[in-house]
Specification:
The protein contains ten helices and 14 strands. The chain is α/β, with parallel strands linked by helices. Strand 10 and strand 11 form a beta hairpin. Helix 2 crosses helix 4.
Length: 407
């Protein structure tokens, strides 16, 4: 029943959008109007069928034919979101026309009412811009890797570690790249050109199963760090998003642990290691996923057991809500690195104008970049890969360079 309702809703949205388009093309000749009709409904019906098939065969199709899955979900997003925005403008136009019609009829019943189309025309323009933006996002934007630099300044950082360079990457979701290796190899070269002391990966290597990461071992093993590479699991790394038995989940998790190792990462599972530089030490802590509304299997108490209380402490924890719920003001941890939010893979960021917005802020108070409360810092990486929406619009995939400085 839910599938039928979803299909009917999508069809009605298409029908209403075509009504709006018809009002804008009514001055065209009949052959052109027929062409618009044929083109619109060919695309709309094809995407409606793909949409219904996707929601009824989601896990099966995503695994058996990922390229087709990515293509049709991309097409659906590229077409449907601009169409929805167009409908909003067209609806406002209809409301305006309805009010004006009523006013005119009350004032002069004989008045010949002429419909206004300004808002519908505006909606067509905005929708067209969105169509172009989303098309770029699913074809080019998701591969437009960028390096963002931040300084973490702390009086607790030993002088020997002043200038330490840590590259953070997160949320690869390798299954969504469908073995498109070349753009990701470029990302690896960008990391290596930084010549970082450490590289950390803060979870979500895959969408649902370790098999997605197998082909990527040679690529990610090429990521170089002078001192070491560390990683943690995210909520998608436990094989809980799919039709897997408990035994299959365990096998996938164990295989993914080995893949992290084969890629050169030291996977931290509710534990810590000491990092040494010029005779001084700090602690690198890593936990299993803990997130508000998600998996809460990470054990921070176990991870920090026997940590030297005088150490500067870095925590790798996939979900930033862990910092808000169990770290901030509660644990003597100076820098936490997270991911998870992806910046919702869409937004507007203009740093020079102080503009930073994404729909994800409706769900997360802290969702991207560096935050500081007292002596505690949180950095949230916007992620490398994509999930659900197979693109990025205004929220480029991120390589973070964090440089530690002694205050």
């Amino acid at each position: 029943m839910g599938v039928i309702i979803a299909g009917v809703v999508v069809f009605l949205l298409d029908l209403y959008a075509y009504k709006g388009i018809s009002t804008l093309t009514e001055s065209l000749s009949r052959p052109y109007q027929n062409g618009v009709f044929f083109l619109f409904w060919t695309v709309a019906i094809a995407l409606l069928i793909a949409f219904l098939y996707t929601i009824t065969h989601f896990n099966e199709w995503r695994v058996s034919n990922p390229r087709a899955f990515i293509f049709w979900t991309s097409a659906f997003f590229v077409f449907s979101i601009p169409l929805l925005v167009f409908n909003m403008f067209h609806f406002a136009n209809d409301i305006t026309n309805g009010v004006l019609w009523g006013v005119n009829k009350l004032a002069s019943p004989e008045t010949d009412f002429s419909r206004r189309k300004f808002l519908t025309q505006t909606g067509l323009g905005v929708g067209s811009l969105l169509l172009g933006g989303f098309f770029y996002g699913v074809t080019k934007g998701k591969f437009a890797f960028r390096i963002l630099k931040n300084e973490v300044i702390s009086s607790r950082l030993p002088k020997a570690f002043d200038g330490l360079k840590i590259v953070q990457i997160s949320d690869a979701h390798l299954g969504s790249f469908v073995n498109n290796f070349e753009p990701v190899k470029k990302m690896v070269r960008m990391i290596n050109d930084i010549e970082p002391d450490y590289v950390v990966f803060t979870g979500d290597m895959v969408n649902s199963h370790a098999d997605e990461a197998e082909p990527w071992i040679p690529v990610f093993s090429e990521i170089k760090a002078k001192k070491g590479k560390f990683s943690v699991f995210g909520n998608h790394d436990y094989a809980d998003y799919g039709d897997y038995t408990e035994d299959e989940k365990i096998r996938s998790r164990n295989r993914l642990k080995k893949i992290h190792q084969d890629m050169g990462f030291r996977l931290l599972e509710d534990e810590h290691v000491e990092l040494e530089r010029e005779g001084e030490k700090i602690s690198m802590i890593g936990v299993h996923n803990w997130g508000a509304g998600f998996h809460q299997v990470g054990d921070l108490e176990a991870a920090i057991q026997n940590v030297d209380p005088d150490h500067f402490k870095i925590l790798l924890s996939h979900d930033p809500t862990h910092w808000e719920n169990q770290v901030l003001g509660k644990k003597d941890i100076h820098l936490t690195m997270s991911g998870h939010t992806h910046g919702m893979q869409m937004g507007i960021e203009i740093p020079n104008l102080g503009i930073k917005w994404s729909p994800v802020k409706l769900r997360y108070k802290r969702w991207a970049g560096l935050y500081k409360e007292g002596e505690q810092h949180l950095h949230i990486n916007r992620g490398l890969g994509v999930l659900a929406f197979p693109g990025r619009v205004g929220m480029a995939p991120e390589i973070t360079l964090l440089e530690l400085r002694t205050a």
